[in-house]
Write a structure and sequence with these properties.
The protein has no helices and eleven strands. The chain is globular, with a radius of gyration of 14 Å. The protein has one domain (3-111): Immunoglobulin-like, CATH 2.60.40.10. The mean pLDDT is 85. The N and C termini lie far apart (35 Å). The chain has 113 residues and is an all-beta fold. Residues 2-99 form the Ig-like domain. Keywords: Adaptive immunity, Immunity, Immunoglobulin domain, Receptor, Signal, T cell receptor.
Length: 113
């Protein structure tokens, strides 16, 4: 069975801390892993990771993928109150001619400042 799991489930940090969010997956026909930030309404896209070991950065956020061990991490440095949100990871599977599936995580990770 395909699954995506995040940990820890919730986190309380202080301003200025560095936070690491973990996402592990077991998905057949893996294509990419996506990170999102959800504050109040629809999630905001952060990163798409497709290559193992390649770090993507955007300001104080960085994400990396390890295809061998089937996990990804999202790092947030120098946390600020505006970072308070639910962070989600999702795995996209390879598409066939008929279907393409996005496997969302079974857990959502809340970061509270």
């Amino acid at each position: 069975e395909d699954k995506v799991v995040q940990n820890p489930l919730s986190l309380v940090v202080h301003e200025g801390d560095t936070v690491t969010l973990n996402c592990s997956y077991e998905v057949v026909n893996f294509r990419s892993l996506l990170w999102y930030k959800q504050e109040k309404k629809a999630p905001t896209f952060l990163f798409m990771l497709t290559s193992s070991g390649i770090e993507k950065k955007s300001g104080r956020l960085s994400g990396i993928l390890d295809k061998k061990d089937l996990f990804s991490i999202l790092n947030i440095t120098a946390t600020q109150t505006r970072d308070s949100a639910v962070y989600l990871c999702a795995v996209e599977a390879q598409c066939s001619l008929v279907t393409c599936s996005l496997y969302s995580n079974s857990t959502a990770e809340a970061l509270q400042l």
